[in-house]
Write a structure and sequence with these properties.
alpha+beta, Immunoglobulin-like, 33 strands, six-stranded antiparallel beta sheet, 16 helices, 697 residues, elongated
Length: 697
């Protein structure tokens, strides 16, 4: 490779290393570095060929232009500056750094002492200085070939929020054991785009796939020492790179990115959106005793939040050692650049933000009007993206459900726990359950927000699966290697008589009835429903409620024992929601007579009379009903809830009704005899639909 003698002055934007004008432009941000060098390597990344000092800084940006080179150039960065941990600075030019804006990553990471800026084991700890060169063991970036706008950008379904039915899934776990997907494609992006997978999504009726993290991630050192991996992938290092672990094509970064783009385009062609679970709250560099891989070496004091009165320490709001300082303007820019890349060049439709309050953290705590949210809301490219918040983090003032701005949707754990308690052991009163069933207006009815802002769910990747929360009384996480200390304690769950698999027909019947009532509640509740992949087939993790490091049959979906009847029932629920506008109404219910665009809701006791204040707080009674009356035509709906252990007789309003769905399966579909109470089976949710057809007497 013939390399020029001098690095010309380049442009300060865009960040990263990109091909332009017969060469490559480099732009790197650092507020505190005194010099940054770009180091070029051979194509294998094993031999350093040349170093160039970047020009600058200008407004915190170091830059340069190298003529005569192009795509495929392998490089890393070295940053010079003060090594004064007590002031928050940890520059060490002996450490080769991965460009945060890298579009392609080459090499294979192995945790080594050389990755640290200090001498591991030194008496002075992280205040010591390690002079060893980390280049031989460091990941490198590779300059990508120019890529136009993805096909997925052009053929995106662009679903309105009111139509969304989400399915959260793991790329590998969903397909790894699927018998109808070719073995070579199982566990991959290509496998997720296979007709067999798409057929399941379409039959189920979901609109949007919410993928667990797919960015380039590392396994934490503690997991590696135990011979385990971070299966969920919440440890991102490459924020512009799809994880090669899930590629059928091998680990060449160019091919991996193309496979991902083709997956998105294929899903779009079948009317399915793709939302990515993204981790902009922490990095694999860990706390102040962690490694120097990229961000820390370029400008530790800017990229990370530091403890105010001890800047040698990282502020740990994530439980992962460090917290990304999104309040910094350049870090805000980094996150937005990453998001735009995934929308424009990879074609995705939105993002679910892990530990999202971190994105709005200022020096005074969480602020819904933080600079990042302002910038995000006015970005023209990201205007088309769905924005979903996990509205809690691991620190003080971390629970922020209902406080995210604009068009954010938010995971609503209050719905999860209320629905579970209601159906599993009647551990919640009717008023609380009704409020969660109608999109939690106490949390979301403000600031022009709509009911769809509440993302309702029964289970997600962390926590019990639906099958397990109806089969176990406690978590069983010993396989994780943490003595069962990890995972949520006290999850609302019930085994209905003896944990785990059983041949007892009565127990199996009660479990199945509870699962169907929970699924129906989820799909019919006002707000945005999110299913956890596998719940529709009664997939079990054998009681493990934190399978984050189980890259094996524990966490992969067990298609061989799929419950076909439960899958068909779930599909019926989703189809009914799609068919009935009153079940996906995205305005707050009117308290009185409804207008043309409104629905009115009336709550009724089992006797058929309107609920009074005292009824809502009666701890002894749990069954009730709600009548939804559309304002713009369409049939009324009557939903009957009976979580009790015996059949109850419900008095019905004086309309003609037919059974649209009975979660117990005991009531036949069709007309209901007028002027008579309806016997609603125990542990069931029944949906009646108004009909104008004559009903036989």
């Amino acid at each position: 490779m013939n390399l020029p003698e001098l690095l010309e002055e380049g442009r300060h934007e865009p960040f990263g290393a990109l091909v332009r004008d017969g060469g490559v432009n480099f732009a790197v941000f650092s507020d505190h570095a005194t010099r940054i060098e770009v180091c070029l390597f051979d194509t294998s990344g094993s031999r350093e060929l040349r170093r160039y000092a970047l020009h600058g800084p200008h407004d915190g940006v170091f830059h340069g232009f190298l003529p005569g080179v192009g795509a495929g150039l392998v490089y890393g960065l070295r940053a010079h500056g003060p090594y004064t941990p007590e002031q928050g600075h940890r520059f060490n030019p002996n450490k080769l750094l991965l460009d945060p804006w890298a579009r392609e990553i080459v090499g294979h990471h192995r945790w080594r002492p050389e990755h640290h800026g200090y001498e591991v084991g030194h008496p002075s700890g992280a205040r010591s200085f390690d002079a060893r060169d980390s280049a031989p063991v460091a990941l490198k970036a590779r300059v990508p070939a120019p890529v136009g706008v993805s096909a997925g950008w052009h053929n995106a379904p662009r679903r309105p929020t009111s139509e969304l039915v989400l399915l959260e899934l793991h790329v590998k776990g969903f397909t790894k054991l699927h018998p109808d997907i070719p073995e070579a494609l199982r566990g991959t992006y290509a496998g997720l785009a296979h007709p067999a997978a798409i057929a399941h999504f379409k039959a189920l009726g979901v609109t949007t796939l919410s993928l667990l993290p797919v960015f380039y991630a590392l396994d934490e050192p503690a997991l590696v020492e135990r011979g385990q991996v971070n299966y969920w992938g919440y440890n991102t290092l490459g924020f512009f790179c799809p994880n090669p672990r899930y590629a059928a094509c091998g680990d060449d970064p160019t091919a991996v990115a193309q496979e991902f783009r083709e997956m998105v385009a294929a899903l779009h062609e079948n009317g399915l959106e793709v939302v990515l679970d993204v981790v902009y709250n922490h990095t694999p560099e860990g706390g102040e005793t962690g490694a120097t891989l990229s961000f820390r070496g370029l400008d530790h004091a800017s990229w990370y939040r530091l403890v105010h009165d001890d800047r040698s320490r990282c502020e740990n709001l994530t439980g992962c050692g460090n917290t990304v300082n999104v309040a910094h303007p350049r870090v805000t820019q980094f996150v937005l650049d990453s998001m735009r890349y995934w929308v424009e060049q990879m074609g995705v439709d939105g993002f679910r933000f892990d530990l999202a309050p971190v994105l709005g953290r200022t020096h005074h705590g969480f602020d819904p009007q933080a600079a990042f949210f302002t910038a995000l809301r006015q970005d023209p490219v990201l205007a088309r993206a769905h924005l979903i918040a996990e509205p809690w983090d691991a620190a003080y003032d971390g629970y922020q459900v209902g406080r995210f701005p604009g068009r954010f949707l938010e995971w609503n754990d209050k719905f999860r726990d209320s629905a579970r308690r209601y159906w599993l052991h009647r551990g919640v009163r009717r008023g609380e359950f009704a409020r969660r069933f109608t999109a939690s207006n106490d949390l979301f009815h403000h600031g022009q927000r709509r009911p769809s802002a509440s993302i309702n769910f029964i289970s997600v990747h962390d926590g019990f699966t639906l099958a397990d929360l109806t089969s176990y009384d406690t978590k069983h996480n010993l396989a994780n290697g943490e003595n069962n200390r990890d995972g949520r304690d006290g999850e609302p769950c019930a085994s209905f008589g003896g944990e785990g698999p059983t041949e007892d027909a009565a127990i199996r019947r009660r479990r199945d009835r509870a699962r169907r009532a929970l699924l129906a509640t989820l799909v019919f509740a006002q707000g945005t429903p999110m299913l956890c992949a596998g719940d529709e087939i009664a997939n079990s993790q054998q009681g493990n409620n934190n399978a984050y490091n189980q890259d094996n049959a524990t966490a992969w979906l067990d298609w061989a024992h799929a419950d076909a009847d439960l899958r068909a029932f779930t599909a019926r629920c989703v189809a009914l929601r799609r068919a009935e506008p009153a079940l996906r109404h995205d305005r707050w219910y009117a308290a009185g007579p409804c207008g043309a665009e409104d629905c009115a809701i009336v709550w009724l006791s089992p006797a058929g009379r309107p609920m009074h204040d005292g009824d809502w707080h009666d701890p002894a009674e749990h069954a009730f009903a709600c009548q939804i009356s559309p304002g713009a035509g369409g049939p009324r709906l009557l939903l009957l809830f009976n979580p009790e252990e015996s059949t109850l007789h419900f008095g019905l309003p004086a309309y003609r009704w037919e059974v649209a769905l009975d979660s117990s399966g005991e009531l036949p579909a069709g007309p209901v005899r007028p002027n008579l109470p309806l016997s609603v089976p125990s542990g069931s949710l029944v949906v009646l639909r108004e009909t104008l057809s004559p009903i036989p007497t």
